[in-house]
């Protein structure tokens, strides 16, 4: 069929241009991809106390992420069991109960239905409607890694660890710089008129756009590593369910390289204690500093080190974001600032400033990027785009062999494969995964009868 032919092209790195703005493709993504994959929704540090909650979505489905009195984190489908009203309308807060605004049914913060106005008069009490054991629908699957909370709409989803695979090795650089883990600020939340895949692909591996798209940021001297010649010495790695880019740093030890990007000694010491020998070797012996990355499908990371104001000092920051699809041509971006929980307060404050300057709704990189992505999305909706197969084969020769060989273990200590220089390796990895999901039909899920036997 037409569809499987196009998915075959995608696997070869030839991208049907219309997938970046197509209602039919979007419906498939909704059902076959976001209906099944593990999706990042928040971090445990956002809800540290019993009763703390945030409301997050997986496409159209709203979930209350809440920490119960038993300290357990739960994700509950934010829909009242009575007439389906959204139970919690605030975005975050602390509550022991949620009361539905429509007729007043109330639920404990672990989801149990505890209050049902006029239970006796309206239903004849328990005989007519069994209130006991009714709960808001739990997310079909929930799991965490380093405090990152993921949910899946598929009750048969593989364990999260298995799904993430060796990408966890790289996740630690962003989310575990000490035993204390990270704390988050935000998220800032905004919408862009662009397809969600473009951002995910860009963060995964587009080292190629930096010298062009971000010329102005380079020109004003915000970075110490602006040169395109330097950028191509970095490597692109992919492992398990995600991949990213790195910068090659000047020679030095593990400690010297982390100091070079602006980490204070005490943080460097904790990283040394927290990371494995291989994790240390990627930075130290191999000399690659982790930069942007994406985990399939729509979770991305940034690690960068811009100059601080007028000085020559640089300061690193970490940001986490999701590209949450709203429609084929619209994405809601949720962007968090992340920092090691044990970092000195002064570092946290300055690092936050560095983040705001570069990313988030005020970030200079953000403005540059989005202009391109909106324009691309617009053009992808036209009928000419349906005739076009874009070439996303950078780094490959005609026979599919790579232009450069993957880095051998002596030069790259991390799992997965890594290539030096420009190449669309990771964009292809992401889209191949995307094709795998889109190809596989979903079985319809079991229905849950409110008030019936569970
Ligand atoms: Fe929630 Fe009626 S819809 S109480
Ligand atoms: Fe960019």
Automatic annotation (TrEMBL):
- What UniProt keywords apply to this chain's record, in alphabetical order? 2Fe-2S, Aromatic hydrocarbons catabolism, Dioxygenase, Iron, Iron-sulfur, Metal-binding, NAD, Oxidoreductase
Q: InterPro entries from the entry?
A: ARHD_Rieske_2Fe_2S (IPR015881), RHO_NdoB-like_C (IPR043266), Rieske_2Fe-2S (IPR017941), Rieske_2Fe-2S_sf (IPR036922), Rieske_N (IPR043257), Ring_hydroxy_dOase_asu_C_dom (IPR015879), Rng_hydr_dOase-A (IPR001663)
Is Translocase one of the keywords UniProt gives this record? no
Q: Name one Pfam family in it.
A: Ring_hydroxyl_A
Per the record, the similarity remark reads: Belongs to the bacterial ring-hydroxylating dioxygenase alpha subunit family.
The organism is: Prauserella marina
The protein depicted here goes by the name Ring hydroxylating alpha subunit (Catalytic domain)
- Which is one GO molecular function term here? monooxygenase activity
Q: Does the keyword Metal-binding apply?
A: yes
Show the PROSITE patterns listed in the entry: RIESKE, RING_HYDROXYL_ALPHA
């Amino acid at each position: 069929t037409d569809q499987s032919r196009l998915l075959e092209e995608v696997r070869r790195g030839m991208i049907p241009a219309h997938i970046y703005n197509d209602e039919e493709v979007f419906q498939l993504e909704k059902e076959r991809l976001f209906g099944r994959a593990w999706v990042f929704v928040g971090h445990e540090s956002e809800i540290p106390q019993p009763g703390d909650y945030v409301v997050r979505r997986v496409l159209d489905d709203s979930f209350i992420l809440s920490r119960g009195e038993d300290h357990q984190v739960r994700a509950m489908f934010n829909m009242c069991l009575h007439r389906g009203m959204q139970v919690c309308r605030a975005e975050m807060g602390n509550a022991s109960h949620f009361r539905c605004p429509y007729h007043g049914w109330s639920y404990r913060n672990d989801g149990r239905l505890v209050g049902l106005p006029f239970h006796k008069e309206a239903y004849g009490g328990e005989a007519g409607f069994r209130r006991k054991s009714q709960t808001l629908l739990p997310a079909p699957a929930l799991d965490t890694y380093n405090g990152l909370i993921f949910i899946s709409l598929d009750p048969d989803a593989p364990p999260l660890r298995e799904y993430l695979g060796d990408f966890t090795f790289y996740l630690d650089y962003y989310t575990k710089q000490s035993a204390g883990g990270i704390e988050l600020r935000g998220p800032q939340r905004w919408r862009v008129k662009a397809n969600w895949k473009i951002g995910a692909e860009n963060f995964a591996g587009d080292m190629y756009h930096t010298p062009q798209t971000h010329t102005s940021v380079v020109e004003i001297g915000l970075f110490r590593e602006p040169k395109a010649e330097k950028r191509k010495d970095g490597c692109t790695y992919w492992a398990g369910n995600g991949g990213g880019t790195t910068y090659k740093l000047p020679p030095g030890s593990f400690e010297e390289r982390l100091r070079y990007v602006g980490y204070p000694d005490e943080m460097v010491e904790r990283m040394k204690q927290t990371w494995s020998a291989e994790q240390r070797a990627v930075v130290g012996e191999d000399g690659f500093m982790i930069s942007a990355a994406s985990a399939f499908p729509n979770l991305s990371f940034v690690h960068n080190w811009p100059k601080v104001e007028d000085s020559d000092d640089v300061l690193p920051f970490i940001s986490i974001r999701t590209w949450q699809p709203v429609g084929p041509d619209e994405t809601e971006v949720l962007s968090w600032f992340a920092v090691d929980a044990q970092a000195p307060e002064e570092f946290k404050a300055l690092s936050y400033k560095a983040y705001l300057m570069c990313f988030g709704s005020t970030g200079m990189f953000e403005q540059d990027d989005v202009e391109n992505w909106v324009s691309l999305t617009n053009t992808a909706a036209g009928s000419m785009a349906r005739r076009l197969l874009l070439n996303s084969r950078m780094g490959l020769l005609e026979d599919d062999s790579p232009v450069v060989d993957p880095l051998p273990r002596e030069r790259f200590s991390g799992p997965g494969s890594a290539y030096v220089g420009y190449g669309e390796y990771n964009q292809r990895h992401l889209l191949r995964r995307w094709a795998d999901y889109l190809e596989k039909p979903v079985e319809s899920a079991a229905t849950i009868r409110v008030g019936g036997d569970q």
